[in-house]
Amino acid sequence: MEASSPALAGTSPTASAMQPSSATLSSYGYLQFFWHYQDKSVIMEHYNYTGKLQGDRYRDGLRPEGIAFLVVCLLIVLENAVVLLAIWRNKKFHLPMYYLLGNLTLSDLLAGITYMANIIMSGPKTLQLTPLLWFLREGGVFITLAASVISLLAIAIERHVTMVTMRPYHGAKRGRMLALICASWALAAFLGVLPILGWNCIHRLDQCSTVLPLYAKSYILCCVSVFSAVLLAIVVLYARVFRIVRTNTQRQRLGLSSSMRKGLARKSQKYIALLKTVTIVLGVFIACWLPLFLLLLLDFFCPTRSCRLLFKADYFLGVAMVNSLLNPIIYTLTSKDMRRAILRLLCRPCLMTRDGQVKKIGMPFLECSFSKTEVPSQKLEAGAETTISSGNVVTGPSPIKSLYPKLLKP
């Protein structure tokens, strides 16, 4: 044993010198990993494998449907910019209760901008991109659309918490609003950057999505599952809000006089109108997003090149983008204060008098509404509250105080 020790000792430095250290291997692996992100041939390889290079789509310039989608995106940007500007310029909307509305509007505006950039960089320009730029192009659209969807969940959570705690809006609510906004963007960003951090299918072609050839099918299924869970949570939360309102309204009705019952009935009608608006918003959301969800599920289960429908994914994404186009319209049609603010912003000399009254030409826009029980515009005084529910804004006396008068007495 002693004789062999020197020999081993003599060969040990040579052997260690010939074998690279784990740190060297790790560094080489990272360099190889990021080198693939700069290799333009990766895009060609994946698009050719999935069959997306068949035809002339990636040879011609901007197609007519692409121009139509650009127009839709431009409308999305303009509409949401008007809503944001109306909120910013109107001091009545500078309250924590409007933070979630502004956040949803901002995410829709950014979704329109990122999708415009996506369209401009599509077609023949796709094959000129590096994988890094491709991930940034697709990730930008994904993050902003995810933030829009998750913002709807944040609004539903806020509505539910407000009804369960039976407290009107107050200054301490600012922290909860900001926390919901930060959480929505953090979750959207986390889901959006997973592919660029490694959850992709570069050089693993059999695991690739057909709709998004550099995304792994497992990642696509994960995102569809998350968004489906978000939608289910929104429906459950609003169902609970409706049940709370109905139960407490029935309890209050039993112990009130006839005159107070009439007042409570009016409050109940306002809540029913609010929930109708929620139903409209959720219905629009489902109608816009469900086709894309079903297409992505088909992408997961369908073998490569066997489902021609997957090559029409742009149309399904365009339908999903319509949700961001319709949200601002729903805001204006369900809030008289918001409609008045937009009228004042767009063309005050044309539609309003100097003392702030609406001219006849602007009355059709001001009076249109999904709800017949919308309360008149009024100042936010003590005891007044603005209710936001999935994009709906209704200003009026606090319905919580009406439903729970004894609990909220000072």
| Spatial strand order of the main sheet | 1-2
Backbone structural class: mainly alpha
Beta fraction: under 5%
CATH overall fold name: Rhopdopsin 7-helix transmembrane proteins
Report the end-to-end length measured between terminal Cα atoms.
91 Å
Number of helices: 13
Low-confidence stretches: 1-25, 370-410
Architecture in CATH?
A: Up-down Bundle
CATH class: Mainly Alpha
Shape: globular
Question: What is the helix/strand order?
Answer: HHHHHHHHHHHHEEH
Tally of domains: 1
Description:
The protein is mainly alpha-helical. It has a single domain, classed as Rhodopsin 7-helix transmembrane proteins (Rhopdopsin 7-helix transmembrane proteins). It has 13 helices and two strands, in the order ααααααααααααββα. The protein has a two-stranded antiparallel ribbon with strand order 1-2.
SSE layout and pairing:
Elements lengths: L3 H15 L3 H15 L4 H10 L13 H26 L9 H22 L10 H35 L7 H21 L23 H38 L3 H44 L11 H22 L1 H16 L11 H5 L16 E6 L2 E6 L1 H5 L7
Antiparallel strand pairs: 1-2
Give the gist of this structure.
The chain has 410 residues and is an all-alpha fold. It is 67% helix and 3% strand.
Quickly list its features.
mainly alpha; 410 residues; disordered C terminus; two-stranded antiparallel sheet; globular; disordered N terminus; Rhopdopsin 7-helix transmembrane proteins
